Amino acid sequence: MSGARIGCCVLPEFPVALWIQERPSIAAFPLAIAEDEKESSALVICNRKALDAGVTRELTVAQAHTLCPDLQVRARDQQREQQAAREIVTRLRTISPFVQDAGDGLFFLNASGLRFIYDSEQSFARKIIDLMTRETLPATVGVGANKFIARIAAQTVKPGETRIVPSSTERQFLAPLSVNLLPVSDETKASLYELGLRTIGQVKAFPLNELMERFAADGMLLSRLANGDDPDTFLPELPPDLLYKRFPLSFALFNTGSLCLYVERLLERLLERLRQAGRCCRRCDIICRLEDKTDLTIVVALDRPASTLPPFMRQLRQSCESLDLSSGVVDITVAIPENSLLLLEQLSFQQRSTGAATGEVQAQLAKLSEEHHCFKSQLQAAHLPEQNFRFLPATEKIKAERSERPFVQPYAGHHLSGLRLLQPPVAGDLISTGKQSMLLRVKQTLHTIERTFGPWKLSGGWWQSSFDRIYYEVQTTDRKLYLVFYDRIGARWFVQGVFD
Predict the structure, then answer these.
(1) Cβ-Cβ contacts under 8 Å for 249 (sequence gap 6 or more)
(2) Fold of the domain built from segment(s) 172-226
């Protein structure tokens, strides 16, 4: 189980399943869950027997009883569902330490890095099924490269079954499936049917520029989903015991340099757990147990959240410079008391903390700007990537422009704010090895291609110089993501930029 892999456990009809778990005898009857037991209340969910009797969620309790006199109606208890979900998360953590409760009986697990525990992803999935069976809860399990693929895999099998979607087969898996499985609004699904698009494969083959013209920002989402790419991030909750590391020493430490080395090893493991969960922290506590039975606590606090080791270690070494270990350290504990979600956008220069050093930098920046050596860029709507930015003096404040319709570039899946544009585009080449693999050559350096996204066709320019390009996003095995295009007029490949 190598690479990014996510497991999904689906508990179908979760509120119904909880009632049957408590009272197994009602499983033999048509059963519906309503907001409350009043005759005018709307139904929330029904079991298969109720659906077969013609009961649907659009009905009230009174209307449903008219159609099906034997219908059993129970009021929904959301507190009970939340408590049951917390208990399920606790049990699932015995299989994988990182679990996300997505609500309504949907749970995601990190399936990466577990090859030393489970023989295969199939045994990992069967372990989840067995656990839910012991809890008398019907479940389906899917495993894939992201949450979207794993969820679809779990939703396309019967209770008690599993489905594994191997890496690099996501598009083939999705192609024959119905568009009803896409996580988009009912209105968008209805519009897809009006266009004659019944399967996800048909959505993938539909021109991206037409999808964006008809669905605006949802057009890019549809394209990404149809290509097996999921914009939704795996964000599990972290229990306190995963953010706590203790290391008892067999001898006493009197040297602060050695102390920093031990703390570094412990803190590195904790931060790795944070990164896997898409989280960061601003503070870590180091509790040192001394030979004289007292505790020495060192608090390392940063001015902004981080998930990497160097900022914490720089701060720790500064704190240890004035530390006097008159009594030796015999036990070290590192704990992260609080954590938060990683920011998806970078902080701007103006948002950073100010001070004397920052003032000097701003003065130097202003001087460079006056000499026309330093600029800042602003994103703007344009047909070609090299025209998507305009350059302003570095000290000029960029006024945010409001738009009724968000700008979405028609030639890439990722947003341009993370693109390091190459000006002009660098000539490159795509080379086939003859073994179902491709190489990307950039400046005489070869990179093995792991995945591709696209294509996006871009043409026009009859009013100026014409252009006709086919764009792809290319992900290489060294985890870099390139934006490349094939110039159909010049019959050559170019690298437009790199997503950082």
Answers:
(1) 262, 329, 330, 331, 332
(2) DNA polymerase; domain 1 (1.10.150)
Q: Which tokens in the block code for residue 107? A: 């749970």
The answer, yes or no, to whether the previous bond of 455 is cis (omega within 30 of 0) is: yes
**Cβ proximity of 495 and 426 under 8 Å:** yes
Residue ranges per structural domain of the chain: 14-78, 172-226, 240-341, 349-393, 416-499
Strand partners, 432: 438
Query: Per residue in 259-299, pLDDT tens?
Result: 999 999 999 999 988 887 878 899 999 999 999 999 999 99
Q: Rounding to the nearest 10 degrees, give the CA dihedral for residues 445, 446, 452, 454.
A: 50
Alpha carbon distance 109, 139 (integer Å): 14
* Higher-confidence position of 132 and 380: 132
Q: Provide the b/e sequence for 20-45 (b: ≥16 CB within 10 Å).
A: beeeeeeeeebbbbbeeeeeebebeb
CB-CB neighbours of 300 under 10 Å: 21
Model pTM greater than 0.90?
A: no
The CA distance from 46 to 31, in Å, is 6
Q: Does domain 240-341 have CATH number 3.40.190.150?
A: no
d(CA 310, CA 271): 11
Q: What is the DSSP string of 264-322?
A: HHHHHHHHHHHHHTTEEEEEEEEEEEETTS-EEEEEEEEEEEE-SHHHHHHHHHHHHHT
Query: Residue 312 and residue 274: Cα distance in Å, rounded?
Result: 14
Cβ proximity of 203 and 226 under 8 Å: yes
**Contact in structure between 228 and 145 (CB atoms under 8 Å):** yes
Distance between CA atoms of residues 446 and 462, nearest Å: 35
- What does the block give as tokens for 347? 């902080």
